[in-house]
Structures are given as structure tokens and as C-alpha cells.
Design brief:
The chain is mainly alpha-helical. The protein is 54% helix and 5% strand. It contains 14 helices and four strands. The protein is globular and about 55 Å long. 39% of the residues are buried.
């Protein structure tokens, strides 16, 4: 039985941009990093959901061969990233996106993880692989088959595993084309800012922001993550203070007063 409190919390997190459930675009696609880069590069930072839809479907900005392919691309991108300035996660993504192109793969991955339960289910598995260890597709398939029993056919399971591996490769956690090995991505200040903000949306604050799954995703020592948080603060991406081991992180201008109220109501209890 699902507790009423959990349902209320999920509802509030959904209002802040997260997606819950059991379905996600990675059953059919990767995180579509190249398409996202083209879309953001050729649309205004103030673009609306309608503007993104027009660019993808009517103007064929992504160069898809058929209208059906354009509509499917729009649907997958909207599910992965919202493409809506009313969504706090997407708004933060766009705010940070143009600061450093090298940060974009991990920025995209962070939002995709927050919005695709299928991809999110693979995070622990990928992070558990030692750096340099081989990660063959068959091992990914076995993990997915165990995690989602009787859900995928043999053919669709192979495609799902390829999509999952493709996303983690694009983000820098896997390396190689046919034979993939676990690798360590380069983490930039923008990514730390977004991961801290994502934990903040869940209701975390202070030191607890640095122990969330979003920061665990990045690896690195506490000193390294603190240094990146300070770098983000120096660049005006957030406010970070660390006095005697007591940490304070704030995100001026990221949320409306109403969104901040929803965030406080969804406070994570650890």
C-alpha cells in the first residue's frame, strides 16, 4: 500500500518538474543530447512550450525525415526535459546551459534522470561499476531484465539496454562504441549547481544537499565538490557559504514564491 504522505510528496515533486511512475523515453530513445543542443542553440531563452513545438514540428529544426518523426521527437524531448519555462528543472537547465558547452552532457543527464524513471533505475547499476571495468550490453540487459521482469521482449530489451548505455556514454560515464568501459566524466561548476538545485527542489538544505543522489552521481571527494560549489558561487550561479563546516546554499531567482512554498511542503525526510 502506498502511504498518502508519499502520494502528496510525489504530487508536489511533479509540480516542481520531476516525473514519477514506471514509463520513460529510454524505452525508445537515448537522452537525445544532440537534438537538445540544436534546439536550445536555435531558440530564444524566453521560448515557450509552443515555440519549441513549432521549431521541432512546423520548422523541422532537427531535420527529421517525416512529420511523424518530428512529432515523436517533440514528445520524447518534452518528456525528458519538459521544454516549458514554467518547469523549474527546465528553467534551471536553460539558465546554466550556455555557460559552458562541456557541462551540457551532464546537465542534460541530470534533468533526464529526474524525468525518466527508466533511466533513473539504472543509476545505481552504472555507478557501481569500477572505473575501467567493462560494461557489456549483455550485463546491462541482465540488470534491466531483473529490474523490470516480464516487461520487455528480447528484442526490446536489447534496444532498451542500448539506449541506456548510449545515454551514459554521452554523459561520460561509459566509454567506447561496441565495447564499453566505465569512465569518469569531467564535472563542471554548472553541473554542481544543477545537482544541488535538484536536491534543493526535493526539500534538502545545507549539508544534506551534498549527500543527495544527485551529488553522488558526480563522484569526487567532498573537498572537490565544495571547490566546485565555490566556483559556481563566484560565477553567480548560486550562493554558497561554508563556515566551520556549516554549509548554506541558496538559489536566488530560481523559484517563484509559489514554487518555493511547494518545495517546502515536499521537504525530504531522511
Amino acid at each position: 500500500m502506498i502511504h498518502r504522505g508519499n502520494l502528496d510528496r510525489q504530487s508536489r515533486l511533479t509540480r516542481l518538474g520531476f516525473r514519477v511512475g514506471i514509463n520513460g523515453p529510454h524505452a525508445a530513445r537515448t537522452m537525445m543530447l544532440d537534438d537538445l543542443r540544436v534546439l536550445i542553440a536555435h531558440t530564444s531563452s524566453s521560448a515557450t512550450r509552443h515555440d519549441y513545438a513549432t521549431a521541432i514540428v512546423a520548422e523541422n529544426l532537427l531535420g527529421k525525415s517525416t512529420k511523424k518523426a518530428r512529432e515523436l521527437s517533440l514528445g520524447h524531448l518534452a518528456t525528458l526535459y519538459a521544454l516549458d519555462p514554467a518547469n523549474p528543472l527546465f528553467r534551471a537547465l536553460r539558465r546554466l546551459w550556455s555557460s559552458d558547452a562541456a557541462a551540457q552532457p551532464l546537465l542534460a543527464l541530470t534533468v533526464a534522470l529526474a524525468r525518466d524513471p527508466l533511466l533513473r533505475a539504472s543509476q545505481g547499476f552504472i555507478l557501481s561499476r569500477p572505473i575501467g571495468a567493462p560494461v557489456p550490453r549483455e550485463v546491462v540487459e541482465a540488470f534491466l531484465a531483473e529490474t523490470f521482469p516480464d516487461r520487455f521482449s528480447v528484442a526490446s530489451l536489447k534496444s532498451f539496454a542500448q539506449n541506456i548505455a548510449g545515454t551514459w556514454t554521452a554523459a561520460g560515464f561509459l566509454h567506447g562504441h561496441r565495447r564499453k568501459t566505465r569512465s569518469r566524466p569531467e564535472v563542471r561548476a554548472e553541473v554542481v549547481a544543477l545537482c544541488l538545485f535538484t536536491g534543493y527542489l526535493e526539500g534538502r538544505s545545507g549539508q544534506r544537499l551534498f549527500s543527495s543522489d544527485w551529488m553522488t552521481l558526480l563522484g569526487g571527494t567532498p573537498a572537490e565538490l565544495d571547490a566546485l560549489a565555490r566556483s559556481a558561487a563566484h560565477r553567480g550561479l548560486l550562493v554558497f557559504m561554508n563556515a566551520g563546516g556549516v554549509k548554506e546554499v541558496r538559489f536566488p531567482g530560481y523559484l517563484s514564491a509559489e514554487e518555493e512554498q511547494v518545495r517546502q511542503e515536499a521537504t525530504d525526510v531522511v
